[in-house]
Amino acid sequence: MNTKAFFKLSYGVYIVSANYENKDGGCVINTLAQVTSSPARLSIALNKNNETLRLIEGAGSFSAVVLSEDVDMELIKTFGFQSGRDAEKFEQASYERDLNGNPYPTEGIAARFSCKVTDRLDVDTHVILIGEVTEADIPSDSQVLTYADYHSKKKGTTPKNAPSYQESQTKGFRCSVCGYILEADELPEDFICPVCGKDASYFEKID
Amino acid sequence: MNTKAFFKLSYGVYIVSANYENKDGGCVINTLAQVTSSPARLSIALNKNNETLRLIEGAGSFSAVVLSEDVDMELIKTFGFQSGRDAEKFEQASYERDLNGNPYPTEGIAARFSCKVTDRLDVDTHVILIGEVTEADIPSDSQVLTYADYHSKKKGTTPKNAPSYQESQTKGFRCSVCGYILEADELPEDFICPVCGKDASYFEKID
Questions:
Q1: What DSSP element (H or E) covers B14?
Q2: Which residues face B15 on adjacent strands?
Q3: Do B34 and A136 touch (CB under 8 A)?
Q4: Closest Cα of chain A to B116: distance in Å?
Q5: What pLDDT, on a 0 to 100 scale, did the predictor assign at position A162?
Q6: Lowest model confidence (mean pLDDT) among B120-124, B155-159, B191-195, B200-204
Q7: Binary contact (B10, A6; C-beta < 8 A)
Q8: Mean pLDDT of the residues in chain B
Q9: What is the average pLDDT across A108-136?
Q10: Contact B138, B173 (CB under 8 A)
Q11: Which residues of B65-97 are buried (b: 16+ CB within 10 A; e: fewer)?
């Protein structure tokens, strides 16, 4: 099996978010799609380790934004490379709330949706949620960021919890938080990850 | 609700196919995503009207190919704008069979997968199927066709059964087979659809 075939799948880059029991949270995903048109429903896939999944299932609703080409990488780092268990992500971003009370980032986005969760499918390590769309808006005329451009232009990485995560065939050291790989024989003790800013203790050797 | 927000979602273009009870069939979809990485699983969404859904559910497995930028529009017309109830699509294309006996197109593709169906979620007009990947290959180094490029470069259209189908806000006549819109006050009696080749009797007036 040539696992590089998975890199041929096209995605956008999205942040899904919710508020549950007075806690705001959200995370970056690439697996969002429209599954029905009348009524309009979106599907999203989230890793069971994601704090955001707990918040969305608790709230029974979620916001989803489509990131734009001009998005600041800091927003992706904030929502993609930290756990909501450790960080108050929305305190680090401009945001508003939708009619369900769920927060969503307002900068670096090309479109936004609000959804009520209607269905759930357990797929082992991940959960697919279906949401009926209750709000949809295009707050700017920015171009959307594709997942391919995220990798090629933004030099983005794929963390371990992502559905599209691939074991690397490169030797070196991998950041366990954001997936950044340092190709080197030795990891300097004072090394700081250039993508997510974690120190050397977060790196794992890969052979 | 601004339904144009749905046009901001990024997809690739795929053909999924199967063989059931000695019948080959397949159709074009844009909703294919990886949902887990270990083991690797793909999700696909199909309209319940699609003959291909019946074949895949009967077979319990499917092939999926990623279409490439250099794909011939004839292949998309063959698999996207005809029903498998009326046409033997694979008789009109070059194809091979995977280890499950399912056929897949061999030209105009950037990657291919074979999957065994493991889960199913009924979403009203559509069904989401989850497939565990048993084969994955990159038969050429062609660039993948994105759904955005399909619309902008290939002048592709979206038929009514697609999850991303949108009612048009344009006045004129719409081809009920492929979704092509002629912006005009009158539909000439001898009009032939420039996308799928159907005659004027297949066109519906839109206001």
A1: strand B14-20
A2: B28, B65
A3: no
A4: 14
A5: 74
A6: B155-159
A7: no
A8: 89
A9: 96
A10: no
A11: bbbbbebeeebbbbbbbbebeeeebbeebebee
B145 in the Ramachandran plot: left (φ > 0), alpha (ψ -120 to 50) or beta? beta
pTM of the full structure: 0.82
Distance CA A24, CA A102 (A): 8
Q: Quick check: A45 pLDDT over 70?
A: yes
Q: Tell the residue number behind the tokens 């979704």, with chain if given.
A: B179
Predicted confidence (pLDDT) per residue in B47-100, tens digit: 999 999 999 999 999 999 999 999 998 899 899 888 888 889 999 999 999 999
Q: Could you tell me how many CB contacts below 8 A there are between chain A and chain B?
A: 161
Mutation test of the interface with chain A: which of B6, B149, B164, choosing the one with the most A Cβ atoms within 10 A?
A: B6
Tell me the C-alpha distance between B138 and B141, whole Å. Answer: 7
* Nearest residue to B112 via CA among A5, A22, A193: A5
Complex-level ipTM: 0.81
Tokens representing A49 are: 């380790």
Q: Which of B35, B134, B135 sits opposite A31 (nearest CB)?
A: B35
Q: Contact A67/A76 with Cβ under 8 angstroms?
A: yes
| Nearest-angstrom CA–CA distance, A14 and B5 | 13
Least Cα distance to A53 among A81, A25, A13 occurs for A25
Whether A130 and A120 have beta carbons less than 8 Å apart is answered as yes
CB of A81 within 8 A of CB of A177?
A: yes
C-beta neighbour count of B183 within 10 angstroms = 10
C-alpha–C-alpha distance, residues B119 and A150, integer Å: 30
Phi, psi of A123 (to 5 degrees): -125, 65
Contact (CB, 8 A) for A55 and A63: no
**Residue A206 near chain B (CB below 8 Å):** no
User: Could you tell me if B7 and A143 are in contact, meaning their C-beta atoms sit under 8 angstroms apart?
Assistant: no
| Residue from the list B12, B38, B130 with its beta carbon closest to the beta carbon of A9 | B12
- What is the C-alpha to C-alpha distance for residues B157 and B70, in angstroms, rounded to an integer? 17
Q: Cβ distance A92 to A82 under 8 Å?
A: no
Q: Quote the CA–CA distance of A11 and A44 in Å, as a whole number.
A: 12
Nearest to B129 by CA among B38, B41, B20, B19: B41
